[in-house]
Amino acid sequence: MKKPGSMRALEDMGRARLSENFFLRDFLHSEIADFYGIPNIPDDPELAIEAGSRLCEELLEPLQRTFGRLHIRSGYRSRSVNAFGNRNKLNCSTNAASAADHIWDMRDADGCIGATACIVVPWVWDNRDRLQGWQSLAWWIHDQLPYASLCVFPKLWAMNIQWHERPARRIRSYAAPAGVLTKRGMASHEGSHAEFYEGFPTLRSG
């Protein structure tokens, strides 16, 4: 599949189905792209679809089946959109750091593929008063799903959730308490963390 060169071709590309409930078009919205008029279109649609399909099939579908509909805050970023966001301090890392992350159609320095989406899980936010903080969902995902990395934000406990073919299995947060929750080598990394997410739904894998 070539990079779309017309509105009709872009429309057709957006119909690419990534999983049972998600299509590529679901992940192309960008406030940066919309406000500054920069097309958010993959240079390599086939690679974007390959990486995005793994993200959706292995992480987003199980989350949605278990907790109900997810809110997609952001997903794919083109190299031009991401570079503009980085230059203008709009919460975007460099393209090199965002490869195989928000830039789905760019391999990282090791030649690996990956994809990230920023999501909100409404069930978790709506039940926050009885949960043990954002950590409850983070530990649930850590124990249940093959995520590569998680990064949690204060507003709505939104999180960047990444699929990557070489998962780092690292969780960090800008929401209080900020910092690294777990990573390989930390004592907290192994074993069950079920005490942190009592009352959560049971994983619905399919």
Quick description:
With 206 residues, the chain is an alpha+beta fold. It has helices spanning 7-14, 31-36, 45-67, 79-87, 95-98, 122-126, 135-144; strands at 71-74, 114-120, 149-152, 159-164, 170-173, 179-182. β3 (149-152) and β4 form a beta hairpin.
Please tell me about this protein's structure:
A hairpin with a 6-residue loop joins strand 3 and strand 4. This protein has one domain. The relative contact order is 0.13. The model has no long low-confidence stretch (mean pLDDT 97). Helix content is 32%, strand content 14%. The protein has a six-stranded mixed β-sheet with strand order 1-2-4-3-5-6. The chain has helices at 7-14, 31-36, 45-67, 79-87, 95-98, 122-126, 135-144; strands at 71-74, 114-120, 149-152, 159-164, 170-173, 179-182. By secondary structure, the chain is an alpha+beta fold.
